[in-house]
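Shapes recur. Our protein:

. . .
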Amino acid sequence: MRSDFFSIAARILRQAEPPAPPEFLLASQGAIDAFAEGKFRSLAECVRDDIRKYPPTYIYDEPARDLWDEYRYHVTQGSSPLDASWEQTFQPHVTKHVDALPTTIKVLLTIAGQSWRTEYDDQDGETVDEALLFGAVWDELVRLADEDPETEPEDFQSVSQDDNFAQAIVSNLN
């Protein structure tokens, strides 16, 4: 798959005047990968910020400040039947941020994403693969949730259910 990526980049860069030297092509591949990794991370952070605006649902009987805290707890617990529900909850937010990107950036992210996955045989350098972009942002959201320093997993267990219940009552009185 890397060879497909390289051949597309080479074809584009060879058409430049003067043609790009081979060492530039290799450096370009690394630069595109680094750009894509950073952009997918940035998109995941934007989605996380959106999700933090939602109140917690208390589906886990664990203290949470917002829906992102609950998602983080879900990630720490491993795969569950709720995985599809989480994806459906996040889908409109991922779509909103990906759709806001210029088409050229989406094509570049598609090319980089395809070069990282083995199931892609062909890259035309013009196609946007929305499912691939969602998957790449989703993968980054999982990593972000797993490493988010703002709420460590032990924080979820530091408050008992009784304390959580008491906090909910007090907040409703205010």
Remarks:
- DSSP finds eight helices and no strands in the chain.
- Confidence is low (pLDDT under 50) at residues 151-170.
- The radius of gyration is 21 Å.
- The CA atoms of residues 56 and 67 lie 5 Å apart.
